[in-house]
User: Which sequence fits this backbone?
């Protein structure tokens, strides 16, 4: 894994609990990350979810997106999940892993939040992006 | 860092903007002596040569930092020296004390100068903990240097290369003229001289992407007499490349077997055995100039071995569309002070499929000033896309994703490649006009107009600034390059 | 003139400026019918097709020259008709009466129209003494024509080609779409469509001079898919050409035998057997596109047989330095309404041998507006020099003579060739922007600037005006072309 | 010979006497012309001279230059012939003639008067140029 990717993962394991964070290397020095037990709640029917995402080897320059959450995600009010959230995905793609099987695939709901511009590298770390996505989900 | 393993000549590379600041400080017109400190990265080459890379310049204020000497005429005050040597220790950089002499065309240290080095530099080497230290002396049109390496070896600086709008070389003293050139090049040496032809023959040029643009660059530069090429492209030729890749032939793709009318498995097999793009470019180069040296590297530029080859070059032509390639090349330009150019073309179509903009871009890349990252020409979203495997990318498609294949046309590529090579030639032979610029050029095909835009500079950019932890001139001890990790 | 020997389709070519004047007159926004007379030259092609060449336009003033008809709605007054039919008789030109209908996209003569032709045209043919007469009817985006030939044959106009900033084709009615194209061209048809690819495949392009510039033009256009080439250059390759002529190889000049170190007689023998430049270009074209048709003519362009081949082309790339070639091509552009471009580069050096200007020029040539003669780009003194044998020229050398060989560099040629081909592509596929110009372009290498200059027009120019005895649109019955006499 | 060259020669034979004008075709449709017995006189020692010149096939676009006169041309005042007049030439070059021998070469003095620009073709015909050169010679 590249030093920048390792640093990003360290920041995430610092924020969450180390044993709640699963990591699998990709083929290029990036990593697939899964954080278990992130608190959700209203407006969703589920109290918590895992959140998975890919940190490319070109971290911190590359955006981190999309994010994936539990496949049964549903709104308390029964409404549709809305724009930017889609069902029927799987995470991670085993072909992208350095060692397929290191992180078994889960069916998932995909959350698409793209950060389009970065003025300089590092303004938005993968941790920062993850927290933004969680925040965004809670304000749906 | 094994600086003492370097056994070839040492050179200093200095960005033109920084050089001009230094010149203004050393030669304000008072005929007096002035001082400064240059902080430099280091870049050991495979040949055993080493390049010092000017990263940051600190001008010594007369009477404050630069004061009457105890034994010589003037000296840098100890506090000034100490401040910068500690920075060099912490950031693993080379400390270079600078002053000037009068005269022009040649320069050498005085015996006072050399005595002071012998008294002071062993102690500075101790403080800098394994990083070289040294001194430079400037005159008009000449630079000499005395570099002290850890371990006790001491080397004289062979030359100083200034790179910016053009490339100029300063030496301690003029060199004698060399042997007569090849009469084959008569028509062009009438423009840039035998000396220019030798510069081209001595240049090692990287071309990243040997598709529509890169194949033309290879062709032009090989005819021109460039001596060595590093060609990097992982791809094999596809039938749809033939209208743009010069030198490609139908038999390179097993024409017929690779056509859409052939059975899918036959087609796949044919394409798996198609000629690699780097090998087509090698063929074109060798035909034009059998004595050119060609390294054909059929790998992704982000693979560390390919990146390592890139660091041995004098100029980089970036003719690949990938954002990751832009990110890496841009980092190398700033961190290793290797000039280059990004070339591309764009065809924009509106929602109704109607053509809007069509243009070719030529973006000169120069350390510290022309940066693709702070000009937002490297898209973080596309960087993320490029890190995914195909199936993932398709599964994760977004509203603003353009999965459509971009149009590409040889005449647009020709415009970009020709201007980029022409710019390279005038850069290398130092024939740029006083009014010449390094602006990003955009050649509009539909209106025949040219629009130039001045790149902006973010003073804290991680890529093009010399802030702590940023890349400019940091060389081998700087931030890790954005390559694949192995 | 044997107009009755033509058995292929007839077309009309009309300069854009003239077409726009006509459009403004026919469609002022009143929805009414208006009239005019077009006087045209004629250009029979070897294929049996004939091109009518719009030379001059006479707008009929409503109520004066264009009046209520006795049988139809309106008619040209007899006096107006008579004036122009007599001109056509005297200058051996074709008389074409014009009016317009409403609607857009398709148009046809009414039965009133056709009846009036049948009543009137036999008499007009008698008056015009062996020159065709006819009528055109315009709608928005459509033109139909009814041409009466001496001898009684009558043909419908197949299409009208408007040439200027771009080339557009109008027909009596839309044509059905054609077969699917070659998937090889996928990437570029994404920009200009299958229709654009068919236009290129159907184009016959002349390249005059297959040296540094012309060889690149051949390469680009062949890759692009241009269907037919006429290559004209009398010269064989010389070793000093290899750095600029793409596709050339050392064995083309018997490398070693042709080098300056070889005995003079061996060298002469080798050079006398070197490959012809047209054959090198043919090799490049065929490798890029085996189905391209190539006529390689190793003759001086002024030899009448070479000139005759030129007249069969749709576009002329003038990449030769000779003034005589400029004179001839310029004459053809205006007299035969064949668009083209002159490409060149110049390296200027001052008395002390220092480089001053370096630039590439791309000068679009269009009938009636972009003329090399009235822009003084054809030097009468150099024309005289070029008519002398070498020994004469040397014996008669003058103070302002530059017998020195001009410098020449592939990157300069690349700039000119790439822009000229790009301009050609956008012209042919009619994708020029509303802001597009036909100005002469000058790409400055040393400053990276582009300067555009608007060509001036001398209203009495023998070459680009339609004054009596002048060339514009006069075609086969016009002034003799400046070729060698046999 | 090209029609334009023939027309230019007709103009010259119209001005001078037909039997004073010698003509030989070149290989490209142009012509070498020699006019005998053109009046000279002061400032020259010679009363008359032949004048020879080449009309290129690209007439009337091409300039007509240089002109050639008798090889013994000399000034009455003994001064040098001055700028634009040089000795030791021969006219015409036999290799340029369509049929070598058609116009035997004579040793000659060369008179160099170049017309640099023409606004449109035909403003300066070969006859016009010849008259200008004769005029110029007389004002030396």
Assistant:
């Amino acid at each position: 894994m590249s030093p920048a990717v390792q640093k990003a993962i360290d920041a995430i394991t610092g924020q969450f609990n180390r044993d709640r964070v699963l990591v699998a290397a990709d083929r290029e020095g990036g990593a697939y990350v899964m954080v278990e037990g992130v608190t959700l709640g209203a407006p969703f029917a589920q109290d918590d979810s895992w959140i998975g995402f890919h940190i490319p080897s070109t971290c911190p320059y590359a955006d981190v997106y999309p994010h994936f959450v539990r496949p049964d995600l549903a709104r308390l009010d029964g409404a549709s999940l809305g724009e930017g959230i889609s069902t029927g995905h799987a995470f991670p793609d085993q072909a992208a892993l350095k060692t397929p099987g290191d992180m078994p695939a889960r069916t998932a709901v995909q959350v698409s939040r793209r950060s389009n511009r970065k003025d300089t590298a590092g303004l938005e770390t993968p941790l920062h992006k993850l927290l933004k996505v969680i925040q965004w989900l809670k304000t749906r | 860092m094994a600086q003492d393993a370097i056994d070839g000549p040492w050179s200093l590379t200095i960005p033109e903007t920084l050089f001009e600041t230094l010149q203004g400080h050393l030669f304000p017109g008072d005929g007096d002596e002035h001082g400064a400190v240059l902080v430099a990265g280091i870049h050991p080459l495979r040949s055993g040569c080493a390049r010092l890379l000017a990263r940051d310049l600190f001008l010594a204020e007369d009477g404050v930092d630069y004061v009457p000497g105890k034994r010589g005429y003037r000296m840098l005050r100890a506090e000034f020296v100490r401040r910068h040597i500690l920075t060099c220790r912490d950031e693993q950089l080379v400390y270079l004390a600078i002053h000037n002499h009068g005269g022009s065309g040649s320069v050498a240290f005085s015996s006072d100068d050399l005595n002071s080095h012998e008294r002071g530099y062993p102690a500075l080497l101790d403080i800098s903990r394994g990083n070289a230290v040294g001194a430079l002396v400037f005159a008009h049109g000449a630079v000499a240097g005395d570099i002290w390496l850890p371990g006790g070896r001491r080397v004289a600086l062979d030359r100083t290369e200034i790179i910016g709008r053009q490339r100029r070389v300063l030496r301690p003293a003029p060199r004698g003229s060399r042997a007569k050139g090849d009469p084959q090049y008569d028509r062009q040496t009438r423009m840039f001289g035998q000396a220019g032809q030798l510069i081209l023959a001595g240049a090692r040029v990287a071309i990243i992407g040997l598709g529509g643009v890169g194949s033309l660059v290879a062709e032009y530069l090989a005819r021109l007499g460039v001596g060595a090429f590093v060609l990097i492209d992982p791809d094999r030729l596809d039938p749809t490349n033939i209208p743009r890749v010069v030198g490609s032939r139908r038999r390179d793709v097993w024409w017929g077997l690779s056509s859409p009318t052939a059975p899918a498995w036959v087609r796949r097999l044919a394409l798996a055995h198609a000629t690699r793009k780097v090998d087509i470019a090698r063929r074109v180069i060798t035909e034009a100039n059998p004595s050119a040296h060609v390294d054909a590297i059929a790998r992704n530029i982000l693979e560390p071995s390919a990146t390592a080859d890139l660091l041995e070059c004098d100029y980089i032509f970036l003719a690949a569309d990938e954002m990751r390639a832009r990110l890496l090349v841009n980092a190398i330009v700033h961190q290793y002070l290797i000039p280059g150019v990004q070339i591309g073309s764009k065809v924009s179509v509106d929602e109704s499929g109607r053509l809007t903009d069509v243009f070719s871009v030529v973006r000169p890349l120069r350390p510290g000033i022309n940066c693709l990252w702070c000009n937002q020409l490297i898209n973080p979203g596309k960087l993320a896309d490029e890190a995914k495997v195909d199936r993932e990318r398709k599964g994760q498609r977004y509203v603003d994703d353009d999965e459509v294949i971009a149009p590409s046309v040889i005449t647009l590529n020709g415009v970009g490649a020709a201007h980029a090579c022409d710019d390279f030639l005038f850069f290398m032979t130092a024939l740029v006009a006083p009014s010449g610029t390094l602006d990003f050029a955009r050649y509009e095909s539909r209106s025949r107009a040219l629009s130039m835009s001045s790149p902006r500079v973010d003073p804290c950019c991680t890529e093009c600034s010399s802030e702590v932890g940023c890349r400019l001139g940091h060389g081998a001890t700087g931030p890790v390059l954005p390559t694949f990790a192995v």
